[in-house]
Amino acid sequence: MYHALHPDVPCAFLHSSTLFRTTVPPARYAKALADRCDVLCLDEVEIDDPANEARLVLVLRALEQHGVKLLATSNVKPEQFMANRMSSGRFERFLQREFAERYRLVFVGGEDYRVRHPRDDHARGRGWIGPLERSTAALRRTYRAADGERLWLSFDALREASRTTAHARLLDRFAQYDHLFVADIDIANTDDALRLLRVVDDLYVRPDAPRLYFSAPTPPTQWFRAADQGGGLAADIAEKFTRTASRLHALCDIETLAAPDVSVSDADD
Question: 24-58, pLDDT tens digit by residue?
């Protein structure tokens, strides 16, 4: 749509992460957009927290006042944004009711393009799935052979870092390295899933992100499945996690390692 309209219609193309990271007040940000475009193409709108919810709603309302039309993409409908499930905020009515009244929602189906058309090989990392003694050993061999700046974290260490470091600062830290290695990914609960989801999703969209490598006992599609969660917020996060699993396939070549064969004589020994 952007390429079909531009340059005859002044358009801006913006990823939602850029909107959420800016420190410019929403009204001023919307005014700056309105000064140079008639249409805003806003890609991958997702809301994980009330602060992003507030910024999105305030910007959209200001753009509407300036007469700027909105084209946006999202993996879920506005009323299914996780911020609505986490808390009942003053912008909830806009996302659940007013948005549906003002904007036309169009469902786009199809195969997962990230699995069909992964990124160029030079930008891809690797993942190893299987018994941890084998998968983590493969990860460590690659770590030792890697050129450039590299960072090794166990999944426990990554989880702790995400708890003690502001998310934007943590991603800035990762961006200082050429390679990021995460060992033994094993999601135990909703909090683990949400923390990993945010890290992987930002690694996917950041142009300065390091190449990602990981080891895990099971494939990403099995780490946090909606069918296992029994509804509620956990099921919502699991539905969103399917995109994270997809992005891991785009970021990494994933290899499954079988358990070593053990003969009867070996077992006896």
Answer: 999 999 999 999 999 999 998 877 667 788 888 89
Q: CATH topology of 2-102 equal to that of 116-256?
A: yes
2-102 in CATH: which number?
A: 3.40.50
| CATH fold label, 116-256 | Rossmann fold (3.40.50)
Evaluate the omega torsion of the peptide bond into residue 7 and state whether it is cis, within 30 degrees of 0. Answer: yes
Predicted TM-score of the model (pTM): 0.67
Give me the mean pLDDT over the 98-122 stretch: 69
Where are the domains positioned within the chain? Answer: 2-102, 116-256
Residue 119 has pLDDT above 50, yes or no: yes
Higher pLDDT, 61 or 91: 61
